[in-house]
Amino acid sequence: MLGDGGAVVRTTTRRWYLIIIDDLWSTCRYLIIIDDLWSTSVWDIIRRAFPDGDCHSRIMTTTQFEDVASACCSYQSIYKFEMEPLKYDQSQRLFFRMVFGSGDKVAFPGCLREVSSEIIQKCGGLPLSMVNIASLLPTEESERNLQQWKDIRDSLPSTLRTNPTSEGMAKVINLIYNNLSPEVKTCLLYFALYPEGYTSNKDDLVKQWITEGFTGEGEEKEDTARGYFDELVSRGMIQAVDINYCGVLSCTLHHMVHDLIMKKSMEGNFVVGVDNFQSLPNKVRRLSVKFGGARSGRIPTGITLYEVRSLAFFGFYGCADFIEECKLLRILILHVWADQDEDPFDLSGITTLLPLRYVKIACNIPIKLPDKIQDLQYLETLEVDATVVAIPSAIRKLSRLASLKIAVRELLRQDICILQALPALSALSLHVWTTPVEMIVFDKGEFLVLKCFKFRCPVPWLKFEAGSMPDLESLNLCFNAHQADQHGIVPIGMEHLSGLKEITAHIWGSDTDVGSTFRSAVSNHPSNPRINLRLVDPIFHGAVTTSVGTIKVEDEKKQAADNKY
């Protein structure tokens, strides 16, 4: 499933996708869904990616624009389906279910029935408007709540029923925005840092909001940030992308919500955005630079970069040389691209940005981390979605580094020694591209405060000594079943991880037998952790093809006992 959403795709990425798709699907039968397509020019690019074969494949698109719909079906109206608004009884069931958790109108409070009917009629049969409006309404029966329902009814545009257009929905979204608390509004406005159509990870947003100070001080600030995120989901202001049993893991914005926050952000100078050459205010606290595929984009002269506290950059790595001028920077988000034959992207210059607390980097070429990275003494989060040339030994001196995500071509014993010396490290994601030459051993008394460990490698050739990672609660393993045969599919010494609450495994190129073997091997763990198991088809680069299950061991044993009778 693909999404357009107005996101800019640079030329080299387009070519890469065309090659990959043509190679994979030239002889396959496929069903492709392209959601929320916005222009015929994007459709012209996408359609060329799929080979013309005789396998009876299908492509389905959704769009709000008549000309796009016609282009997608080669101007043959027989293949075009226009969605109708919901009928009243359908709208009523959806509305009741969203407000009270049940579509049964019998359970609906009597004093609210008349006003609810008027709200439903004003929503004009649009599911999105009903879901969003329902998130505003209190459920207890009282005079005060009845008045709030009436106020919301009166504030809805009357044109939704007769003319269900984007303009009417924009008014509904603005109404919801105005009913958010100031703190939650601030978190929503933060999405203006990112391009339209961007998928944001919940954990990343939580860390960024905390670093920004949106959640205040105290030990509960992470729970507070997660609560803000969940409220934005329940209000319909952000849309879930990835979900598991814990809730929403990542999200994106509907294009109308994105338009709203860009407007509000610009009005309040909350996030200043620059696409290429344009005028900017002199004083900028949060700067979003979206150069896309341009190789010569530059920040306009006159802007005071010294005062920028948060920076998100999307573009060619050669256009990012201004970053070293942002001396008070606390949050740095880099999504950079380069030609594949370029030398590694050297980040040595960021060591002059002493206040840095959060750094997230994604790049299509290797990254060279600074040799003097110890100068960033306030750094709390470092996430690198690229292969690093080497793990600098000085990283062990970052006393505040709590979250680290890193990828290396090969993992050496000295790398483990460097990482285990980090005193505050509570979350570690380690991706190793090649099979280790020897078993990776975690010794007693190391990684003392680590709570979450994700390890991705061709083989899970790990050993946990007694007393290692004593506080570990979550273990996530990603490996290749075929390559793991000679070393086993379960790390040695997992029983020593006494605090383990969750084990997650993504096994590439495997079948259910391998999954069952893994589950059986870990099901007798003394702490009885939850087991999440996914079998992954490598042909589709990570698409989940089979879910073996998410279950607590005690539930599995109970199920086995029930099956006896």
TrEMBL record:
A GO BP entry: defense response to bacterium
A matching Pfam family: LRR_14
One Gene Ontology molecular-function label: ADP binding
Keyword presence, Lyase: no
Limits of the Disease resistance R13L4/SHOC-2-like LRR domain: 393-531
Repeat as UniProt keyword: yes
Gene3D superfamilies xrefs: P-loop containing nucleotide triphosphate hydrolases, Ribonuclease Inhibitor, Winged helix-like DNA-binding domain superfamily/Winged helix DNA-binding domain
Natural source organism: Aegilops tauschii subsp. strangulata
Location of the NB-ARC domain: 26-101
Disease resistance protein winged helix domain ranges (all copies): 193-261
Protein name, UniProt field: Uncharacterized protein
Protein keywords: Plant defense, Repeat
